Amino acid sequence: MMKSLALLSILFLITACNSSKEVPETAIPFVNTLFSENAFQVQPTIEESEIFLLPQQEQRKFLAHFNKQVEQGIRPDKVVFNYLEQRLDNFTYDGATLTAQESLTRNEGNCISLAILTQAYANLAQIETTFREVGTIPVFRKDNNTILISNHFRTKLLAPKRVTGANEFEILRAGTVVDYFPAQDSFFIDAAHYHDLVAKYYANKSVDALLDEQFDESYSLLTKALIYTPYDPELINLAAVLHRRSDKKAHALQIFEYAKNHGLTSQNLLVNYLSLAKTQTNPVLVAHLEASLDSNASTPFDKIQVAQRSVKKGKYNKAIRELKEVILEVPYIPEPYFELARIYYVKGELDMTARFLTLAVEKSSDPEKRALFQAKQDALSSNR
Predict the structure, then answer these.
(1) Rounded Cα gap, residues 143 and 11, in angstroms
(2) Is residue 159 within a helix (H) or strand (E), and if so which, with residue range?
(3) Structural domain tally of the chain?
(4) How far apart are CA 80 and CA 113, in angstroms?
């Protein structure tokens, strides 16, 4: 999974919600030019080729299986999918971002790890791939005063191109989708490509290093990620967060300002920028960022955060309207129902609270979320 962070009271750190992957039409300087020259020491990092490298024995085993299956008439993309499905039968899904070889050796990893492993086999089979970045509104995990959230990748193994006439073309390429984290309460974020996957690996490792306060390592991995997606708002956000955590507040402000001036912002970046701006004497900037957060909300997660900010301001009816709009857009995710239950509980309307807690439980496909919502529902019932 692609990690996002929120440093409580100050930061929402990287990823993917509402980030633009398009290269700006007009050339702009890279964000690296704003980094502090003396704050970090560059550390050695893993090379791209090593991320996707499989052991020689595994390569031979896979290729023997692949060639035999293809000779029997099975489509190449389906051969890779079936091999992965069998190979990962006892796989443990956790939060670690691993190389292809580490995933096989440890028999575990997150969805970015699995996308990397899938790509490693696709490389051997010479199969083209595309990706989709998918978000889920998370159960928050606290880690040293930091909230971790995540998005994940779905890989599509493309089928061989059909032989067509000179005036024919394929509108939609056939293929097989690999998604070992299917969830009902998910939503599409953006199309993605190979370079995005590589960048996500380095970004996740950079976040891990930042949480461990290994700032030199985090910096080194971040600069590697920026080689692949230099204008990714979430990486720019991570750069600003890293500088702030390293007591380089002036550099962090310059990085945020760079993002705003060049239109390279995301909700996470704006939240962090706003937090830092509130420590300055610039009420105009604070007002601008607050307005930008509300007007630029695009994903369900963004819109739920808008409603949460309305709640903090005591604007309960406004928050209720905002959450009901989210339900109209994505009626299958549980979070807006849970947020409505929280509002009605504060308002003392316990019947409405119980109703929306029940809906939150019914809509949740994630066992951890369902357990959380069920516990709240049970607590409410026992106290009535």
Answers:
(1) 13
(2) none
(3) 2
(4) 16
CB 335 within 8 A of CB 139: no
Q: Is residue 48 exposed (0-12), middle (13-18) or buried (19+ Cβ within 10 Å)?
A: middle
Q: Which of 215, 239, 274 is the last residue of a domain?
A: 274
| 262: CB partners within 8 A, 6+ apart | 24, 28
Residues 253 and 329 in one domain: no
Query: Could you give the CA distance from residue 85 to residue 182 in angstroms, rounded to a whole number?
Result: 14
At 95, the amino acid letter reads G
Selection from 154, 157, 158, 110 nearest residue 132 by Cα = 154
pLDDT tens for 34-70 read 999 899 999 999 999 999 999 999 999 999 999 999 9
My answer on whether 196 and 337 are in the same domain is no
Does 160 share its domain with 95? yes
- Counting residues of the chain whose pLDDT is more than 90, the rounded percentage is 57
Write down the pTM of the prediction.
Answer: 0.82
